[in-house]
Amino acid sequence: MWEAVNERIIMVRLGCRPINISLIAVYAPINPSKGQKADMDVSDNFYINLQETVDKVPKGDMLLIVGDFNARVGKEVNQGPGNVVGPHTVDSINENGKRMIDFCNLNSLIVTNTFFQHKTDASNIMDASRKKGMAHVRLCISQQEISIKCRGCESAQNSGWCDWDRPSSSTGQS
After folding, report:
1. How far apart are CA 168 and CA 155, in angstroms?
2. Is residue 62 within 8 Å of 22, Cβ to Cβ?
3. How do the domains of the chain map onto residue ranges?
4. 2-145 domain in CATH 3.60.10.10?
5. Helices within 110-167 (DSSP H only)
6. pLDDT tens for each residue of 78-89
7. Banded model confidence at residue 156, pLDDT cuts 50, 70, 90
8. How far apart are CA 54 and CA 167, in angstroms?
9. Interatomic CA distance for residues 32 and 48, integer angstroms
10. pLDDT of the residue at 85
11. DSSP 57-78
């Protein structure tokens, strides 16, 4: 089952065993310009729609939210146990990052890929600008217990055994 919520959110529910998986893919609005109410309203509406979508997910499902959040979650928010952001961030926080962290706190979610160390040339990190340095561009949000289960797959991806992010070279795509 799938649902296109709007142009920024799509939800897919996969019937799996032993647990169903609800996957929400997002493309968040750009970071609001300083003091621009119109930009802030667009971001507010995005998170309202995302919350409504999360509220539809059956309680027993594994929930994953992936995509471009246009968010930077900085090291300054990683200050103790129970944090939604792990120790492996490469940037400072921005307004979208604050909104995403609030959303995670409200829903008992974590920014899963910040709990794993990444190679600096990994495809989920990009040079945001020559002056600002590196930034995570793709983020995965999940329930906290999922990060423990994902450690094996993350290790496999870093070793080159599991490459879910890029098409196989055998397909002729690059």
Report:
1. 18
2. yes
3. 2-145
4. yes
5. 144-159
6. 555 568 888 887
7. very low
8. 29
9. 16
10. 85
11. S-TTSEEEEEEE------GGG-
